[in-house]
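Q: For a teaching session next week I want to show students how multiple molecules come together into a single three-dimensional assembly. I've collected the sequence lines for a complex. Could you give me the predicted structure tokens for the whole thing so I can convert them for display?
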Amino acid sequence: MAWLSRPLRARATGSLLWPWLCAASVALSLLMLATLLTLLATRGLGHFWPAELEEVTLHSGDTVIGQPVREAPLPNAAGVERLYFTGNRDIGGESWRWVALDDIDTVAVPDDLIRLERAPWGDFIGRLDEVESAGQRFEDEAAWAFVAHAMTLPESQRPIAQLRLTAANGQIITQPLEGITRFQAPNAMSWEQKVVAWSERIWQFLSEGPRAANTGGGVWPAIFGTVLMVILMSVIVTPFGVLAAIYLNEIAHQNRLTRLVRIGVRNLAGVPSIVYGVFGLGVFVYGIGGSIDSWFFEDALPSPTFGTGGLLWASLTLALLTLPVVIVATEEGLARIPDAQREGAVALGATRLEMLTRVVLPMATPAMLTGVILAVARAAGEVAPLMLVGVAKLAPQMPVDGEFPYLHLERKFMHLGYHLFDTAFHGEDVQAAIPLVFATALLLVLIVLVLNLTAIFLRHYLRRQRGNEC
Amino acid sequence: MLALSSANPTQAPVTRFSAETCCLSINQFHLAYAGKTALRDLTLDVPRHRVTAFIGPSGCGKSTLLRAINRLHDLNESVTHHGQIQLEDQDIHAPQMNVTELRRRVGMVFQTPNPFPMSIYENVAFGLRLQGRLPKRKRDDIIEWALTSAALWDEVKDRLHRSAWQLSGGQQQRLVIARTLAVQPDVLLLDEPASALDPISTLKIEELIRNLKSQLTLVLVTHNMQQAARVSDYTAFLQQGELVEYGPTDQVFTNPRLQRTENYITGRMT
Amino acid sequence: MTPPRLPFSRQPLRLIHDRIATGLITAGGVGVLLAILAIGVFLVWEALPLLTFGDALSLNTLSPLAWGTLKAALAAMLFATPIALGAAMYSALFMSKRLRSRVKPILELMEAIPGVVVGFIAGLLLAPWVEQQLASTLLVLVWLPLSAGLAGGLWYLASARVRQWLPLSWAGVRLMPWLAIMVTLALWLAPLMEQAWFGGDLRRMLDQQYGLDYATRNALIVGIAMGFAVIPSISSLAEDALADVPANLREGAQALGASRWQALRKVALPTAGPGVFSAVMIGAGRAVGETMIVLMASGNTALFSASPFEGLRSLSASIAIELPEASPGGMTYHLLIFAALALFIFTFLVNTLAEVVRQRLRQRYQRLGGNR
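A: Of course. Below is the structure for the complete assembly, covering every listed component.
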């Protein structure tokens, strides 16, 4: 910009460059958020779409059948290679295969390729030859019809049958029907069929337990555990948070001490969640839980009942963690109510309790709700403290069942966030689990975002209501 | 009817009424906020079924006195006081005095209308519900009576269950008065009730005040001299927490005994 | 017209109810507040036995973790502070009101995204990608601010009609496609530049010439991921401080002929400075305590290294990994509790300081001419 005179140049950089940089910061933040959400949505939901299977013939004469996943440059040479998910862990040992594009002779998408999801070995990808059931043999169309019909029946009513399958390398295996959880021929499916299959799989993801070391199946126990823990937490945190806020704002003498306490409470909202986890482990689990064990569950010792992480301790820890959120939100709501309302009630002869319950608390309800929702949103996404006080990678029993006392507060439970962490970082076949991890992450983010949006709308409503009053 | 017990022209006059006409009796009342004196040795009697106006410059303590009569200062720990306020010969600060009952008997209306965020009906029923259960018929009767007394019934009878916040400012203030009347107080304290209202609403409130004195005793705080002259029977002039002059409104406005009072009334206050 | 007398039956009960309720609320409130404050007491109490071990060496095991914590926080702040403050200044002073009312909730949503999700994306997606495309990443980091400046320059040279069509007050959103295009361009250009300047492989060159190791999960990744997580909290706090600067001050400056930017720099920024500072501190407090992102994106190697390309291990991540295994009463247990105490004290101090600064600021604004 040498052609600009100096003062003009200074002015140009000042009033142009910096504001645009600032604007770009906003744009960048939004862009990052959008990218993250799009990534989660496409990868999370895309996994359930019945992807086309390719039959690739290489120059070497080998055949690879699988689902193309992604492409990357070759590590030590020019060119690109493609990753195929080939399944069939029981045959080749590997369920992934990199194929250099230069090696490929032909790529075909034949309709008769099938994909099975099976209990012990994960996915099978290949062809269906024939089905044998009760001494009868079905081939080709009849075999297809047989399996397709059998899969529509409930599991207990399926006939006993053996499937003869051919893998890509020509090896033939026999697979009993009972181990199969899904039967698909994605290449032969119409668009509508794919949509139906897609929604079915999403439903399965939401309603079933994990299978095959978290690489298949769903996250229902984790959803259940998260929701149950959050409900317990809000049952604890709401009354206590509201009580503390009422005490601070309506009853305590407003002096230096209350101001200090208020700052302290506010700051606790900024204390790292892991610190609360440490507190929960030391006080709830080892302290209180240990004592309960030595008093009431002595015969079970040394294996701990309450003296180890569990649902109750997790809920309590998160309740403590979210108390400041509820207290601060409620207090803000209370402080916003004009004193004229309180005096109006008192001047009519109301006691303090009557003033609180009939005038002040009804007016502060939206603020309290906002606080509780924000607390729930925070608790639903919090993982670190749970790792210390009771989350499990695979809980053998649900915390609620038909056995007395029905709600088992001492049991470990599964949690969406921890499930995500564990599958992504400690799984056996991380590569295969990643799509499900994406789906889990999407679910978690959706839950948290919906809760937050509710809180935002509530607050908006609150402000509008206040606007009417003025 | 007026029996002056002191006629010293330089001192603040102590104005007393004979027992049967005196409703509120304030005796050497002293009040301080966190050590700062707000009311100093105040002594005056408020006559029954009359409108008494407290006038004076901002910060003279007139609102403080009003709030003290309702014991609203109980909510604030930094307030200290001594001296007596008697309502019908009962000391309102006496330990056996039930403060909620006192506040029922002494209604208060504030500067800005403060209806609760409920329906019009519920606003008026609020004080009644505090007193205990009433058959619905009887409650409806009292509410109609209170709204009629506050000259609001005709305007709201078709929308009793709508939100009170939808009413205009003047209507809200009359609703607040109706709400107070519903619990049948003996005294109604009005703290600048019309200062936030437009002239027409103000006139309506003033007319209401004049009509209400057949039912109860009214005490009005105002900074509007014409208003005090228009509606009140007696006027007390306060300055810096002290009572300067107290007497029948005509006398205070047309023939004040003290120069200070005259200066204020004629606008020559410095 | 006089209504029937009222019954006054409930009087004594009402007062008793009120007493009981007040007592209960007081007890509950004080109890809750004490329970919250008990956290500090517990941590101190459980960390005290460390003194009896009398082993100075034990603290040495914490020092690389403390270093890792600081390094991660520093990296995050380096990434987040400029973006967050830029965003705060823009949305407080330049953005159109309508846009602001929409962008603010979106930034709140960004704050709400769970750390475990951000950490997963960073550790499993971003880290391997950056490892392969290190040059592109670095180029993008440099290129982004330049391209924003370029946009400003182009806008300045554009005709009045274009300027009216693309006002600065909407640039926060309109720049998004521009930035996306610029990132794509940078990604396309990066391999060529790497070929030309770094001999085709930046990582190998860093290793051979400067002896810098490259770990897949490293401080750079942690910085970006955790920066992403703290941007919204810094920016919303800083924005509040800036937007609350009494309007008459800024308008006064502008009436004297200052441009909007000058008014911002000479008046709003100095006035709101403490508030902006406290926003940054609160962000730093969050970055120091964040667990899941560091756990998933840092590699968890306890190293003393200043290189942004090497892994680290933070206090919080160590607590999360090791504490469930540590036997209560053992030295590791007490040591980890001491680590938690350190985190607690640090964040508590930082937040208190920030809060005090903010309260002072609020008082100053009230003195300076009140509300917005």
